[in-house]
Design a protein that fits this description.
six-stranded mixed sheet; 7 helices; 15 strands; 28% helix
Length: 223
């Protein structure tokens, strides 16, 4: 595996997985993650929020062909490059079915924030509940965490969890956008922190990572 350039950070090796991140351009500064399953060579792109050419370059530097795009939720800062990546790599985008309305409204929401429309995923596949996704030969647990959006999810890879905009280091996702619910988000975070492994690392949609232990201590004081 090649080294990632300074724009694309290698976050480390976690069991059978390697994890990389690319922070997208302003105004979002969103964390797009690349997860590789080393035994099989499978690669998932999680939350491609924008900067499609940079993401394609990062894939080339990683040296593997993506097999799927996974969305933690459907807000425009997390889906902006999905359509271009689908076409480039002939792959589909997977998201929770309860975020279909959020994805459908993403272009209008993006226009409200940036003045620009947005093309959403063209090969959208949805799931319901909390299925087990697969990356190569590995199971990935889906944890449904509504609140930031109705179909918000976290992806639990075991040694690490991708929390999207449900939970940040020292903060939580906003709940004032359509479909948001503060009560549901609080319940989701309570449940999430009770389900994930004690020694797991949490990587969010914006900002730095933190440990489950740090998150639990902070949530006990914040909640």
């Amino acid at each position: 595996m090649k080294n990632i350039s300074m724009a694309h950070q290698h976050l480390g090796e976690f069991g059978d997985f390697s994890l990389f991140v690319l922070v997208t351009s302003p105004p979002w500064y969103e964390n797009c993650y690349f997860v590789t399953h080393r035994p099989s060579g499978a690669l998932a792109i999680v939350d491609p929020g924008g900067d499609a050419p940079r993401l394609i370059e990062a894939v080339a530097e990683i040296g593997l062909t993506p097999t799927v795009i996974l969305l933690t939720h459907g807000h425009p800062d997390h889906i902006g490059a999905a359509s271009e990546l689908e076409a480039e790599f002939n792959i589909s985008t997977r998201a929770h079915a309860e975020d279909i309305p959020v994805i459908a409204a993403a272009s209008d929401l993006n226009r409200a924030f940036t003045g620009q429309p947005q093309v959403g995923p063209g090969r959208l596949e949805t799931f319901t509940g909390e299925p087990i996704e697969r990356l190569g030969g590995a199971e990935v647990r889906v944890i449904h965490t509504p609140g930031h959006s109705p179909g918000g999810v976290c992806y639990d890879f075991g040694p690490f969890v991708l929390t999207g905009d449900t939970l940040f280091r020292g903060g939580v996702g906003r709940t004032d956008l359509p479909g948001g619910s503060e009560r549901l988000l609080w319940d989701s975070i309570d449940r999430l922190l009770g389900m994930v492994a004690d020694d797991a690392t949490l990587f969010s949609g914006h900002g730095p990572a933190w440990t489950v232990a740090e998150a639990r201590r902070w949530w006990a004081m914040a909640g």
